[in-house]
Each structure stands twice: as C-alpha cells, then as structure tokens.
Amino acid sequence: MNHNAANIFGYKQYWAHRFGPAPELPMTLAEMQQLGWDACDIILVTGDAYVDHPSFGMAVVGRVLEAQGFRVGIISQPDWHSAEDFKKLGQPTLFFGVTGGNMDSMVNRYTSDKKIRSNDAYTADGAAGKRPDRAVNVYAHRCREAYKNVPIIIGGIEASLRRIAHYDYWSDKVRKSILLDSKADLLVYGNAERQIVEIAHRLAKGEQISDLKGIRGTVHFVKQVPQGWVEKDSTDIDKPGAVIVHQNPYQEQPACDSKPSNDSGEQTIQFKPIANKQRAQTVIRLPEYDALKDDPILYAHASRVMHGETNPGNARALIQRHGNREVWINPPPLPLTTPEMDGVFDLPYSRLPHTGYGKANIPAFEMIQHSVLIMRGCFGGCSFCSITEHEGRIIQNRSEDSIIREIEAIRDTSPNFTGHISDLGGPTANMWRLACKDPAIEASCRKPSCVYPGICQNLNTDQTPLIKLYRRARKLPGIKKIFIASGLRYDIAVENPEYVKELVTHHVGGYLKIAPEHTEQGPLSKMMKPGMGTYDRFKQMFDKYSKEAGKEQYLIPYFIAAHPGTEDKDMLNLALWLKRNGFRADQVQAFLPSPMSIATAMYHSGKDTLHKVGRNVPDMPIPKGIKQRRLHKAFLRYHDPKNWPLLREALKEMGRADLIGNGKQHLIPSFQPKLAGEAGQAKPAVKAKPFATKHTGFNKAKAGDNRRPKPSSKGRGR
After folding, report:
1. Which residue among 344, 378, 491, 593 is least crowded, i.e. fewest CB within 10 A of its CB?
2. d(CA 75, CA 98)
3. Is residue 711 part of a domain?
C-alpha cells in the first residue's frame, strides 16, 4: 500500500506538551490540578470503564493525542440522565470526542434474541446498566447540552458501522446516518489515529470544525457536491434491477461486473477499476434515505456499492441525501505504517484500570491484560463480519521488536503476571505480515475476500515470519507459555504445515478454537467461508502434530445458527455432524445483523447480495421468526432435554421422525425426563471435550451470540 499521508508522529507538538505524559489520563478536576492543568484541550467520553491499556480504544486515542502535546481528559460511563456529569472536567478548549466504547452499546446490552444481558464486561465488577442504549447519540446530546458551542466528534465501533443509512436490527428498520441522529459535527470511522491527529492540530491552529472537509476516514455534511467533482449515480456502478429512476442513455457503461468465481458458478462482488485521475474527483451518489428506508432492494444495492468502496487504494467518496441534508463519506483512511503502529503501542500506558476504581474487577481487563495485539485488519471478508467496514482489509503490522517490547513490559510491570501470555494475535491469529504480492494489484483490487472461494494467487501466505516471532517470544526470560487465542484462519494455516506444527506443539493449551461456522454449502456460500474439506485437512494436521508432541489436545469448532441462507435441513445436517463427531455445544451462537455488514443486507432484503440484486431475483432463505431462530439454536444443542420437544415437532414436520428414538443412530430420544437438564442426556458417540460458544460481539465484528460477547485483543472499538 502506497502511503502518502503525513506520519502521525511527525506533527509539531502542541504547546501543552511541556506538561509531559500523565501517569493516567485524568477523570476528575483534582487530578487535572495535580497535573498543573487549568483545562482539558480534548475530553473523551466513553461508555466503558477507563483502562489505560492498548486493548481499550479510548486509552489508545487519548495517549496518541497526548503524544501530540494535547491535554486529554476522560469522562467514563457518565450519568446520562442530565448534563451534569458531562461538565465535571470543565469545558474543553478544542472538542469532545464521543464513543459508545469498545463494543456497540446495543450488542453490549442485548442478546441476539433482544433480551437484556445481566452484566457488562467493560464495567467495574461487571455491573449492568452503566450505559444507555445508542450511547453515542445520548452522550453527544448531553455534551451539546453541557457546552453548546464545543465541537463534537463521534467515533468508535458504534459510530463507524452507522456512518450511512443502515438497517438496525433492534428497531427492525433502516435508520439515518448516526451523524444526523447524534447531531454531532464530524464522524471518524475505523481506527481513528490518523484522522483524529489531523483534526486536533487543525482545530488547534484556529480552523473551524466546519472547515474540516475531505479528511479520509471522516463523514460530514455538505451543502452540495463541491466544484470540480464528478458525481456518478450508484446505479451506474451496480444495477439493482427494476429501479424507478430512468437511466440516461448517454451515461457511461456500468463499472461493475459480477462474474462466476469458481467452477460451481458461485458469484461474488467484482468491480471494474476506473482510472485513478477520474477516481480521485469522483463521488458516488447512493440512493437517498427516504427512498431506501422502505425499499429493501435499494438498500441491498446501496450495500453492494458501499462494500465496493472499502479499499483505501481505490475507494471513491460517497454522498447520500437525508431529507434536506447531504452526508459526505470520505474514502477510508490510509493504513498505519509499521513505524506508526509501533509508535502507537510504545506509548506510556499504565496497562491498568484507572486508580479511581480501587480494587474493583473489570472483567474485560482481566481477560486481555496479558494479551498482545500484533496486527489490525482482516482480508477474510466473511459476510457476517464487520472488521472490513471498521479496520479494513489491509493488514497493519507491528514490528517484531515492538511486540517483544510489549511482552517484556507485561512481564516486568504487571502485578499479577504468572509467565503466561494469553494471546499473541489480532482479528485473526495468523495474518501478521501477509499481504498482496504486488502493491499495484492490492491498490486496485475490489475483491471482497482474498481467501474465498479460494486463496488468491496474488496473496502471500508465508507464515515463516510468524514462526520466527513465536520462537523468539517464548525464549524470553520469565515467559513460561504463550497461547494463541485469536481466531485462526485454518485455510491459510493448512498451506503452511510447519506453522501448524509450531502452533500445535508449543502454543495450544489443550484446546484450539477455530470457526468453520457451518458444515453445509448453502450457508457457507453466503458467509464466504471455506467448506468442511479444509477443516478436515486442518484437523488431520492438528491430530498428527499433537500426537507427535505427546499431547492430548482438542479442536473446538464454532458454528452460527440462523445465518441468512440457512434452511432447517442445514441445521439438521449440522446437528448430525456434531453428534457423529461427539461434540456438545454448551452455549450457542445465533446470527445478529450488525449494521452495514453484507449478511445484514441479505437479512433485510431477503436477497443474496453477493450476486446482483433485483426485484425479480428469487428470495433466499432468511431465518427471521423467533420460532425458527430458536429451532436453529436447538439443533446446535440437540443434546439438551429442554430442546427435545421443539426438535421432535420439527423432525416430524421435516419427515425425519426416523431420527427420534433411543438408539445410537437417533438424534434425540423419544422420552422426556421429568426434570429437563438433570437426566436423560444422551452420551456423545465419540469421547470429546464439550465446547463453548465463540465470543463475537463487534470487537471481532462478527455475528452476535446468545450471551455476552467476551472481550478480546482482536478488534478495537476505536
């Protein structure tokens, strides 16, 4: 990737740099006074407890801005019922930065069945109810109420995935861009360091917030398309079928082509690149909010076009009308270079919760305090995953030396370190230093995935640097064990037997979690996931190298229920696979339509948006009803007596009553124990360890599950 952006650490520091770095960013006026401050330049408002650790988005943004010389304060989990808590640090001299936290506030509070969760991993002692629904909107409104004329900039995962008109699962409708609902001045999306540093310095130099147009990775209002720009209608990029608007016969030919991408004729999104000179001054007009809010086909069309503009190397600006307001979405930010990534992670984090929490336990911190993020981004392109929309497909790597320094810092400073690094990974475990072999191809590519339906011939899949990192890290004095807990792309791993051997021999703690997501081709083709043949290849390697190492180790596969494209028979076949292989799912994961994802467009429109969409295109199966979603989850927990009545009814309706009985060949028994869950559970056909549900949430930006998503070092809610 060709970087033309200014180095984020190359700006002249703001005058307040003379105060030096704070031991921890202040959360009270008393702390500000101890630092010698009379005001904060920037106040960050977050829905999370403040933990000064590089796994927490506000800590990273705060420390990056501090390194620029700005005085940064934190308002953590304020009481949103009035504006008083938003005044406790006084008025910032530059702006408020607002985020819902590392997780989307709606995913944080509700399960995929829209039930309220009982705890919050990002709150002291796991207490629930410390943040409002749609926290970004509520916090921004209170900031405006507290100080009317202070600029408000929203960001983080919640804002990032709502930057355009988006389907909202919780209200079951298409909502406006969050920029309008929050009444903020500017939105930053993705990992925000590059944008927020430029914004802060320009405001510090006296520019107005309304002057900050055209910054990559930002969304703002415009009155009209600026002079010198070419406006191209989205229907010239991708034809959605029978659209009411008549086409101009003199317009250019469509710039989109959808071609068969494998022998089965399966199609994926493919866009023809346009000339760089034209692209730089081209803005694509998406269907306006009033048109697509009640038209799922137009929504699916807009989603296809938006996903074609996610590569920083060739993405064009987007514009979308909301009533009488025009929302302008600039192209994604350029990825951070390795020196910039190192600079971000080398900042003086205390790596601890703020001292104001005392001895309170913050579950998210307890889980990730000894994990190390080695990269950002993911080129997997799974349709249910929101990493691309937030972090992008280009892998941003830290250097080996930077990673080693952080491991040593954990060893030397963490008060309860026992010699175990809980994870060395990122959104995926094994994409560190992987990229396209040709930067020119990478900059022009519009494929949604580098590994589906097969690994791209232009992708470098060499895991040798990662093996070298593992070996160097575990040789460090005081390091007893390094676990790899991030999601493994086993389709890449099988291309590198030496990597699989290294991983299985040294970095598995008895269990290794991987995510086939399903066994059936129907849902897998909509997820853009490899088939079970690849899983079987990896399992053979895993078992072989475990045996050679003299270790009893188990693969823990995760699966999604009720994903678009899934039929009842698919879940039945998955349940039969689970029983044949001796797996019992402890908790199950149901698809949650996260804003902006490809699978969410499928869920809302009923169409396969990996193909061209149109009004005459047949609908695809979408498990939407509560009863069907419960049935799909019940198939994953076929062994739970509580699910047997529902499964018996379904199997009879499906003509598969032959699977009801008390033999080994049956899926569920014909009897019902008096106390469900205490008796009558059939033993697995093969001895195997039970497996638990994968944590998902918006940190990894995947489909939601039926419990609280666990925090991880994978994706960052910045």
Report:
1. 491
2. 10
3. no
Q: What is d(CA 202, CA 198) in angstroms, rounded to the nearest whole number?
A: 6
Distance of CA 557 to the CA centre of its chain: 20
pLDDT of residue 250: 29
The CATH number of whichever domain residue 207 belongs to comes to: 3.40.50.280
Say whether both 165 and 244 belong to one domain.
Answer: no
Residue 342 lies in a domain: no
Q: Are the C-beta atoms of 85 and 121 separated by less than 8 Å? A: no
What's phi and psi for 214, nearest 5 deg?
75, 10
Tokens of 246: 């008549």
Please tell me the chain's helix, strand, coil percentages from 3-state DSSP, rounded to the nearest 5.
Answer: 30, 15, 55
Distance linking the first and last C-alpha atoms of the chain: 22
Q: How far is CA 136 from CA 89, 99, 174, 551, in A?
A: 19, 6, 17, 48
Please give the single-letter amino acid code of residue 1: M
User: Which domain range does residue 20 map to?
Assistant: 15-214
Give the helix/strand (H/E) hosting 76: strand 72-76
Please say which residue of 214, 243, 262 terminates a domain: 214
What would the mean pLDDT of 596-615 be, rounded to a whole number? 94
- Looking at every residue in the chain, the average pLDDT score rounds to 89
Contact yes or no for 175/317 (Cβ under 8 A): no
Tokens of 187: 């939105």
Q: CA torsion 397→400→401→407, rounded to 10°?
A: 100
Query: Do 224 and 153 have their domain in common?
Result: no
pLDDT at 637: 96
Residues 405 and 484 in one domain: yes
Cα–Cα distance measured from residue 438 to residue 201, given in angstroms and rounded to the nearest whole number: 35
One domain, residues 143 and 238: no
pLDDT bracket for residue 241 (50, 70, 90) = low
Domain for residue 666, yes or no? no
Sign of the four-CA dihedral 381, 386, 387, 388: positive
Share of the chain above pLDDT 90, in %: 83
Contacts by 290-293 with C-beta closer than 8 Å and gap 24+? 290/321, 290/322, 290/323, 292/165, 292/174, 293/165, 293/173, 293/174
Q: Using only C-alpha atoms, what is the Rg of the chain?
A: 25
Same-domain pairing of 233 and 208 = no
pLDDT on residue 560: 96
The rounded distance, in Å, linking the Cα atoms of 422 and 486 is 10
The pLDDT value recorded for residue 277 is 61
Alpha helix (H) residue ranges in 414-520: 439-444, 464-474, 490-493, 497-506
Q: Return the structure tokens found at 259.
A: 């071609």
Tell whether 174 and 119 lie within a shared domain: yes
**Cβ 217 vs Cβ 250: under 8 Å:** no
Whether residue 292 is found in the same domain as residue 397: no
What single DSSP character describes residue 239?
A: -
Alpha helix (H) residue ranges in 595-625: 598-605
Q: What is the pLDDT of residues 182-218, one digit of tens each?
A: 999 999 999 999 999 999 999 999 999 999 999 999 9
Residue 117: which residues within 8 A CB-CB, separation 6 or more? Answer: 108, 109, 110, 111, 128, 707, 708
* Beta carbons within 10 angstroms of residue 678's beta carbon: 9
Helix orientation angle between 497-506 and 532-548, rounded to the nearest 10 degrees: 50
Q: Which of 331, 349, 380 is the C-terminal boundary of a domain?
A: 331
Task: State how far the Cα of 63 lies from the Cα of 39, in Å rounded to an integer.
Answer: 17
202 and 58 in a common domain:
yes
- Domains contained in the chain, number: 3
Residue identified by tokens 């520019």 is 207
User: What per-residue confidence (pLDDT) applies to 610?
Assistant: 94
